[in-house]
Design brief:
The complex is a heterodimer of chains A (231) and B (83). Chain A contains five helices and eleven strands, in the order βαββαβαββββαβββα. Chain A is an alpha/beta fold and 231 residues long. Chain A has one domain: Rossmann fold (3-Layer(aba) Sandwich), CATH 3.40.50.880. The longest helix of chain A has 13 residues. Chain A is globular. Chain B has a single domain, classed as Mth169, Chain: A (2-Layer Sandwich), CATH 3.30.1280. Chain B starts with a strand and ends with a strand. Chain B is built from two helices and three strands; from the N terminus they run βαβαβ. Chain B is an alpha+beta fold. The chains are: A alpha/beta (231), B alpha+beta (83). At the A-B interface, loops of A face α1 of B.
Chain lengths: 231, 83
């Protein structure tokens, strides 16, 4: 399958994403500059982490109007697979492809550490390689990571099982105590209604190579790749 | 013409920045401060003849880009230029 990684001015996890996909998984990957207007013939798009446009105004708010985003939105609406990681998640919410918004961390501190997250849905095309309830250790690195959605909409999000990942304790316990940033319901990652767009704050691309620590991030990419093989 | 767009976090939204400022004010002895909310003021210099028209246009800008309706509310007003 063919991947595209969108590069915005200020993206800084684009190379890591390319490295994970190309070197670890042997996938063809095209880097897409944000000024391009057509994605071309691709199967999956990754919006990487970083600080697009210096996070001016709000994280993702300006990147969402980059020329390439029109085709990303079309691609997503046509059912194309889109993964937004960290700043990429913020861009997806700003673009309206995912509901909600990401607020300043409750602590007002930039948080950079390994974080356990529990897989709430193992039947999505982003998590099918995980056992039910599996706890993944994936690094987080963000200043605006507190997921927020007003109460009634949050209830609908939960009802339709859109929450894919939740911050938790190493043993999988989900509680306020193990919520690093103040996200409502410990939400770390969600999918859209059609199940083809994933937004997550943790960085799976940073934990694919055993040489630098955990490899739990592989499960996310393996899931997507196997969902294409199965299709 | 100058257009002022004031963007504030919506009521009920966690505003840790406001909380931190409030704590600092309390430490400085301003115990009377019950709540602090921190927002953003955006000033636009625009070429426009009609203030009402300019405000309408700025409201569109706020809806599209300057504010995020999920978490923020905004107010727009025009200021006559004083030379």
């Amino acid at each position: 399958m063919n991947w595209g990684v969108v590069v915005f001015p200020g993206s800084n996890c684009d190379d890591d994403a390319h490295d994970a996909l190309a070197r670890i998984f042997g996938q063809p990957v095209r880097m897409i500059w944000h000024r391009e207007t057509s994605l071309g013939d691709l199967d999956a798009i990754l919006l990487p982490g970083g600080f697009s446009y210096g996070d001016y105004l709000r994280g993702g708010a300006i990147a969402r109007f980059s020329p390439v985003m029109e085709d990303v939105v079309r691609f997503a609406r046509d059912g194309g697979v889109v993964i937004g990681i960290c700043n990429g998640f913020q861009i997806l919410t700003e673009a309206g492809l995912l509901p909600g918004a990401l607020l300043r961390n409750r602590s007002l501190r930039f948080i950079c550490r390994d974080q356990p997250v529990r897989v709430e849905r193992h039947d999505t095309r982003f998590t099918n390689a995980c056992d039910p309830g599996r706890v993944l250790h994936i690094p987080i690195a963000h200043n605006e990571g507190a997921y927020y959605l007003p109460g009634d909409q949050l209830a609908r999000l939960e009802d339709r099982g859109a929450v894919v990942l939740r911050y938790c304790a190493p043993d999988g316990t989900v509680s306020g105590e193990h919520n690093p940033n103040g996200s409502v319901n410990n939400i770390a990652g969600i999918v859209n209604e059609a199940g083809n767009v994933l937004g997550m704050m943790p960085h799976p691309e940073r934990c694919c190579d055993a040489a630098i620590g955990h490899t739990d991030g592989r499960l996310i990419f393996e899931s997507v790749i196997s969902s294409f093989v199965a299709a | 013409m100058r257009i002022i767009v004031e963007v504030m976090p919506k009521e009920g939204i966690l505003d840790p920045q406001g909380k931190a400022v409030q704590q600092a004010l309390h430490q400085l002895g301003y115990g009377e401060v019950r709540e602090v909310r921190v927002g953003r003021r955006i000033e636009l210099e625009v070429d426009a003849g009609d203030p009402a028209e300019a405000v309408r246009s700025a409201e569109q800008m706020a809806d599209t880009l300057l504010a995020n309706e999920n978490i923020e509310r905004y107010q727009v007003h025009a200021v006559e230029e004083t030379v």
